[in-house]
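LAB NOTEBOOK - FOLDING QUEUE
OPERATOR: T.R.
BATCH SIZE: 2
PURPOSE: Compare the predicted structure-token outputs for two unrelated chains run back to back under identical settings.
PRIORITY: normal
REVIEWER: second-year student, initials M.K.

ITEM 1
FIELD SEQUENCE / FIELD STRUCTURE:
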Amino acid sequence: MFKVSSEAKVGLFVLIAMIILAYMSVQVGKQTFTLRKGYRVEVIFSNVAGLDPDSSVQIAGVEVGRVESIKLKDGMALVIMRIKPEVKLEKDVTAAIKTHGVLGDKYIEIIPGTKGESFLAEGEQITKVEKAADLDRLLQQLAFIADDIKAVTGSLKQVMGGEAGVATLGDILENTRQLTANLNRVIKQNDEKIAQTMDNLKGASREMEKTFASLSDITEGIKKGEGTMGQLIKDKGMAEKLNKTITSLEGITDKINQGKGTIGKLVNDEETVKTLNESLAGINRYVTKAEQFRTFLSYRGEYLFDKSDAKSHLELKIQPKEDKFYILGLTHDPRGKRTAREFTVDGKTTKTEEWERDDLLFTAQIGKRFKDLIVRGGIIESTGGLGLDYLTFNDKLKLTFEAFDFSSDQRTHLKAYAEYQLFKHLYLSAGWDDFISDRGNSSPFVGFSIRFEDEDLKYLLTSTPIPR
């Protein structure tokens, strides 16, 4: 069989990598061009606070475009969006600024219009807009409500409190006494008519006696101090507590009016409102960091030309931070796992090798990213090893070098390959596995990968029907 030297293999790998890089450069250029496809649509909002360029444009939770730019026009915010060419918007659609969760990032939600209507063309404007809630305006309205409550309590105090209030109550009682005297005079002058009326009221009085009996029981309970009203009348401590409570409420109202305390500052002090807004912004940043925790599940298949067989990898990548991650994986290698054993017979030691071809190899690594360079290490295919990844073209192209299985009786397992993102979830790869092997395991390969993020997994799991 024709054998290729290690130097020739390295040279061939470099040549293949250069060809792949040239091809990927052309493809990336095309991809960059296609990313700018789509048509522009305008919309005017009165306030776009928190909305940034490149924010998402969605319909029913599905991204259909991006915010291209935000400009000021006649005191309003003119937002220019770029919509995907395959998405058509009716002319009577409605645009609204929404927020992911309570403190999440803002995006533009498009509410579909009437089916059968004509569609918006390049540069046309959406005329229907939903007005977004404004926290500052809400706080201002709360301040107005507090002023109204203050005015009402002041009016009640003027009517019922002080000497004027006591005089008013006295006048009411005097008028009642005079009305009673006048009724007595009328009764004396109309005895016969009143007698007839009293006969007619006898039946009603019997029913009223029952009512008065019930009222008598209630009154007796109040005298004994039973119930809330009885405690209020009989218990001096309760009355004193009520007076203290009213006094405390008056003191609190005065402090609020003077801008003292948390509520007072919230109603009267603009600096406190500003501090509250900054605190909410800090909470928003914390929630954003929590959302950076990501999970990836991927499958990679590699066809080994020299072995005419496929090598499979299943990996779970956990990324708690943007620059730090962990990898757990399983690998099926058609060449199997080499196990070296020694036998001693009659003082003579013999070394043998066995290949377990049905066993799965496992991987457990930790990695750290430094700008475009990733350094990782741990267990690779059931042996200790390390790897280097270099990312370029906006992370679409990855150049990888791995070294593992540092055994003393054979050459280190070296692997190098390039991987390119063709679509959102599909990647193509090509390289050379174990290219300095002295056991005949060296082989060039091509392959593909399928990779899903946690959001994709949530969608797949929730949309997959459960068999019954």
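ITEM 2
FIELD SEQUENCE / FIELD STRUCTURE:
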Amino acid sequence: MSDLAHNYFVSVAEIAAKLDQATHIAQKLSLTASNARAVALRAGERAAGFRPLTDFIDRLAEITISSSKRINQLAAILSQTLAEKVRADTAIAHFNAVYVRAKNSPYIDWFEALEVALIEK
């Protein structure tokens, strides 16, 4: 695996880990906002001004959680695409190595003619 591909895998893993942390913090924040809202409701009119703040915190937590999930989905797609690219690059490298080793093979011209015929189709 190339250094670039390795760096991409590491980057995707780091992103996933950070998003997981952000999701956990947002979930705790959402729970805290719910608890604060319950306390404000029990306090009645004296804490009426506190409700917009708890609503804002709850909405922020919801946005963070949904954004984290979406970014995680995109990171998973990126990781899968990268894995497919690494496999394809490895296969091409193997095919090229076989081709180089087979340069002096008595039937190599037949394979090259077949390749040209397949391309022309």
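REVIEWER COMMENT (ITEM 2): The longest helix spans residues 51-101.
FOLLOW-UP: none requested
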